């Protein structure tokens, strides 16, 4: 079974006609513009095809972005990962690309909106925070922000796919490590402690974790699209399309919760939250649900989703599952690397054939559920696009230089994400320098020791220091949180300038510094790491560090040894010894011999 497609999904040539059709619809509605985010009601990173409005309208296929279409101009906003990609996928005569962080939509709107103009938006697709920012920009310009009942993009999208209806399945409590009743009790205790009467969440990851359910409504993440209302006392309610439940699953879940249709959310809120304080995460909950809570007489209390922090700290069963998944995935990845080294010199491999080969090795485990995202299989200048997606149109042969492969898998016991940059033939001194500096950043995070209370934002610079020394950097976070047979990108924990959540033992993150030379090459080295308590003799504070879970050799051929310290060399040699000792006995003889060769101590 193929878990990824290489068909070209972007159609820039259709952008002008679709923008014109949208403008015609906006004129019918008396609107001067409309905001089109890349999101659904659940604010997922991965959306079902029926929710890919931004991609359909503009051609942009990235995982984050927003377009604003006015009567006489339109802009599309993307972050640093997509600044090159957006120009390749979008008709730039129709949509002007802008940087989502440096020039966000509200800032741009402040320069183009005129008094009296009406800007439309869909309250089911924009978070409370987003709407607040848009409203402030409109008010400052003397314009008004208008919520639409029906999305005008849907009105012109005549062949829009049907919503997904994948079956909901139970996630084994032995893998989850905690029963539904225990999770609900812990959550309710948190709510009572914070004097919150209830929490409503539209985050399908929250419902999946809390109720020990999984599904298949979106690609690469085993999510059932759903919502949840959890009171501080009494029974929670899971909202999901009834067609997704078998009788057995419904009966099992009914022991712990009420089950209702999403269309019943308004009625359930009306009957349960009057006069009560309801916690809504303003960064995740779309404005539509905040309006329903207020309409029902509830008091909206803005704050982080308490489920997210509970989910972020993996219990012992989840940690054990993650370790097992990474050993299994490590064997598949070593088999792939050995194949790559044997096969690539023939000169016949391409980005697509390499991605397909890695998928085959993972399928060879016999327990692969899905990829955790489409593999980023990138040669030469394509590797300079951090979120490159190979298609038949962009497919490049593997040629001398760097080859970057970023990929991951979904197993029932864990989610993986690994990146390796491989030297194919000779690479230049500059490429070796940058590779070594990226490796230094990776090792700096792996070796980090920090007191309780430290956040990812405080560690982020560790990964960048060696690049800063020569006046360069990378445009993405150093690390994101990772779920347990859930999303490969999970919050609130992360290692980035914006990562304000304190890191706690049991949190799973990526460690992936990089370097990108547009039009030339890209470098990234990624392992998954687990926060763990550590003992330091004489320490006066509670201290934490990281356990590295990912097991696969790091290419030593492009290393400029003179740039590494003794401590960094020691870390790399110890890591390679661990890879060799853990995976060696699980490999066939040719691959075991190859692994021994590429993990020999250096320095």
UniProtKB/TrEMBL annotation:
Keywords: Aminopeptidase, Hydrolase, Metal-binding, Protease. InterPro entries: Creatin/AminoP/Spt16_N, Creatinase/aminopeptidase-like, Creatinase_N, Pept_M24, Pept_M24B, Peptidase_M24_C, X-Pro_aminopeptidase_P. It comes from the Bacteria. One of its GO terms (molecular function) is metal ion binding. Residues 542-602 form the Peptidase M24 C-terminal domain. It holds the Pfam family Peptidase_M24_C. Residues 322-532 form the Peptidase M24 domain. The keyword Nucleus does not apply. Transmembrane segments: none annotated. Residues 18-147 form the Creatinase N-terminal domain. GO terms for cellular component: cytoplasm. Gene3D superfamilies: Creatinase/methionine aminopeptidase superfamily, Creatinase/prolidase N-terminal domain. Belongs to the peptidase M24B family. This is X-Pro aminopeptidase. It comes from Labrys okinawensis. The lineage of its organism: Bacteria, Pseudomonadati, Pseudomonadota, Alphaproteobacteria, Hyphomicrobiales.
């Amino acid at each position: 079974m193929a878990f990824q497609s290489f068909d070209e999904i972007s159609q820039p040539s259709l952008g002008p006609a679709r923008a014109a059709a949208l403008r015609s619809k906006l004129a019918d509605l008396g609107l001067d513009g409309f905001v089109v985010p890349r999101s659904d009601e659940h604010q997922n990173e991965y959306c079902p095809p029926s929710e890919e409005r931004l991609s359909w309208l503009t051609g942009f296929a990235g995982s984050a972005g927003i377009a604003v279409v006015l009567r006489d101009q339109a802009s599309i906003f993307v972050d640093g990962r997509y600044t090159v990609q957006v120009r390749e996928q979008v008709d730039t005569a129709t949509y002007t690309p802008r940087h989502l962080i440096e020039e966000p939509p509200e800032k741009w709107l402040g320069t183009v909106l005129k008094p009296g103009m009406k800007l439309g938006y869909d309250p089911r697709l924009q978070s409370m925070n987003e709407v607040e920012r848009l409203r402030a920009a409109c008010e400052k310009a003397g314009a008004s922000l208008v919520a639409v009942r029906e999305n005008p993009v849907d009105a012109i999208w005549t062949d829009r796919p049907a919503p997904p209806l994948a079956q909901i399945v139970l996630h084994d409590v032995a893998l989850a490590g905690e029963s539904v009743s225990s999770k609900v009790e812990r959550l309710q205790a948190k709510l009572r402690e914070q004097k919150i009467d209830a929490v409503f969440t539209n985050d399908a990851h929250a419902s999946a974790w809390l109720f020990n359910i999984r599904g298949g409504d979106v690609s690469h993440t085993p999510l059932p699209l759903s919502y949840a209302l959890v009171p501080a006392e009494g029974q929670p309610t899971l909202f999901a399309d009834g067609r997704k439940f078998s009788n057995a699953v419904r009966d099992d879940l009914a022991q712990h919760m009420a089950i209702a249709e999403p269309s019943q959310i308004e009625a359930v809120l009306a009957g349960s939250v009057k006069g009560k304080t309801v916690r809504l995460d303003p960064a995740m909950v779309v404005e539509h649900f905040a309006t329903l809570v207020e309409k029902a007489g509830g008091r909206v209390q803005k704050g982080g989703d308490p489920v997210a922090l509970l989910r972020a700290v993996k219990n012992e069963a989840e940690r054990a599952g993650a370790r097992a998944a990474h050993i299994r995935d490590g064997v598949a990845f070593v088999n792939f690397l050995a194949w790559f080294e044997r096969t690539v010199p023939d000169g016949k491999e391409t980005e697509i054939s390499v991605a397909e080969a890695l998928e085959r090795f993972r399928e060879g485990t016999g327990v692969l559920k899905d990829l955790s995202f489409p593999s980023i299989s990138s040669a030469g200048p394509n590797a300079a696009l951090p979120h490159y997606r190979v298609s038949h149109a962009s497919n490049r042969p593997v040629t001398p230089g760097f080859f970057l492969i970023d990929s991951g898998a979904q197993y029932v016991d864990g989610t993986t994400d690994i990146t390796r940059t491989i030297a194919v033939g000779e690479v230049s001194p500059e490429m070796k320098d940058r590779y070594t500096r990226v490796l230094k950043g990776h090792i700096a995070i792996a070796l980090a020791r920090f007191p309780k209370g430290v956040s990812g934002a405080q560690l982020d610079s560790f990964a960048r220091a060696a690049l800063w020394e020569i006046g360069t950097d990378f445009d993405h976070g150093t690390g994101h949180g990772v779920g347990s047979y859930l999303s490969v990108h999970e919050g609130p924990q992360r290692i980035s300038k914006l990562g304000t959540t304190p890191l706690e033992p049991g949190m799973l993150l990526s460690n992936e510094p990089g370097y990108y030379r547009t039009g030339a090459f890209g470098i990234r080295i990624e392992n998954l790491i687990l926060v763990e308590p550590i003992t330091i003799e004489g320490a006066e504070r509670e201290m934490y560090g990281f356990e590295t879970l990912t097991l696969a050799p790091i290419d030593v051929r492009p290393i400029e040894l003179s740039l590494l310290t003794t401590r960094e060399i020691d870390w790399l040699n110890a890591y390679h010894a661990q890879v060799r000792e853990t995976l060696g006995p699980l490999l066939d003889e040719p691959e075991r011999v190859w692994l021994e060769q590429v993990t020999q101590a250096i320095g």
